[in-house]
Design goal:
Rossmann fold; Alpha-Beta Plaits; 12 strands
């Protein structure tokens, strides 16, 4: 048995398992229109199968705002799947709904002002989309040419540096994000672990921000990196289909363990 096989078996047979997963690039292909992203059928079937097992909690952990995450994951109020949006600044809990978080009116006013200024400043830049986020904004450049993408990022970088230098800056696949909340996917997973009493965690992601969580996992957890890039993960897979095969194997082993 390889070390990766042993790690998969260990999480599959733990007492209470938290399966915490990034969405874009991990369960859903990266797409030019961010709100058109949807899980692959295999990914949907795999997480539904895991969520149906005893002592097994599935959570989506995303940089998307909670509302957008619910839309793209086709998540409704009857779902057993937990959600952590905005890199862990927002949570949706099965049976309870949204966990409210109080925010300062001055932060929200600054957010609105910077969103509008970013929108105005990039309005003529082809292929650039400014995403209004709950706690800041995102600059999407997937369909922009290289020069336009750099101009958009530079413009918003200067804007935020001048008016909100304490905001957290993140980069990802063709996106630059800013937020007045400083939570990360590491703190999101830690919060979920505590809330559900997980004895082990399987976390998977494909991007730079996912490394916050992958690098903070405990011994006995399993981190999976989907695709290339430097990683702290125990296991790397080539693509979504290969990751779905890992989830299917965890479900198979766990079904035998908890039944």
């Amino acid at each position: 048995m390889t070390a990766a096989d042993a790690a998969v078996e260990a999480v599959a047979t733990t007492d209470t398992l938290l399966v915490a997963l990034d969405f874009d690039g991990t369960l859903s292909p990266l797409v030019d229109e961010p709100m058109s992203a949807r899980m692959t059928p295999g990914a949907r079937a795999a997480i539904d199968a895991l969520a149906a097992l005893p002592r097994t909690v599935v959570a989506l952990v995303s940089g998307r705002s909670l509302g957008h995450l619910r839309e793209i994951s086709e998540h409704d109020d009857s779902s057993p799947i937990w959600l952590a949006g905005s890199h862990g600044a927002q949570f949706w809990i099965p049976g309870a709904g949204i966990e409210a978080a109080g925010d300062d009116e001055a932060d929200l006013a600054l957010r609105d002002r910077l969103q509008q200024r970013a929108l105005d400043g990039t309005a003529e830049m082809t292929g650039v989309w400014i995403e209004p986020k709950e706690y800041g904004l995102g600059v999407h450049t997937r369909t922009a040419d290289a020069a336009t993408a750099e101009a958009a990022r530079s413009l918003v970088d200067r804007l935020v540096a001048a008016e909100a230098p304490s905001w957290r800056r993140r980069t990802g696949h063709d996106i630059l994000e800013f937020s007045f909340r400083h939570e990360g996917k590491d703190s999101a997973v830690a919060h979920l672990r505590e809330r559900v009493g997980a004895s082990a965690v399987l976390f998977a992601g494909d991007d730079v921000t996912d490394e916050d969580a992958l690098g903070a996992l405990d011994a006995g957890d399993l981190g999976v990196r989907v695709g290339g890039g430097d990683t702290a993960a125990t296991l790397r897979v080539d693509d979504i289909d290969a990751f779905v095969a890992v989830l299917d194997e965890v479900a198979r082993l766990r079904r035998a363990h908890v039944s």
